[in-house]
Amino acid sequence: MSVEETSRFVRLRVELVVEVQDADALTGAAAGQIAAGPETPDAERAHAESVVTEDTAEALAYLVDPFDLVREVPGVELHQASWSSEQIDYDPDSPEWDLDEDDGEDGGEEAGIG
Q1: Coil vs helix vs strand at 65
Q2: Can you give the pLDDT at residue 53?
Q3: How many CB atoms lie within 10 A of CB 20?
Q4: 20 to 30 Å CA-CA from 18: which of 4, 24, 58, 106?
Q5: Which CB contacts under 8 angstroms, 24+ apart, belong to 75-82?
Q6: pLDDT for position 61
Q7: Which residues contact 5 (CB under 8 A, 6 or more apart)?
Q8: What is the pLDDT of residues 15-49, one digit of tens each?
């Protein structure tokens, strides 16, 4: 394909596994960000605070902003982003957690840090 025939859009897939070492600090930071945020109706603010204080995965998802991943990358503009988080059972020695393993999808290169 020539340069003119290729799309300018790239889907970047990132999968992270993080260890929450201080759940209170994480949920407190998320609740603090909600409290300091722009004008939000009280019912919506109370619901968001309840969700992030009850679930560390939701607190992390609230604090992570995909825009921050590409904000300083020259020549790119974020057009769409979605993300989620969930609590998992993690065994770094399990073959299912091998980041270098091909996931069977075409169209890109993967790089693992391990």
Answers
A1: coil
A2: 94
A3: 14
A4: 106
A5: 79/9
A6: 92
A7: none
A8: 889 999 999 999 999 999 998 877 888 899 999 99
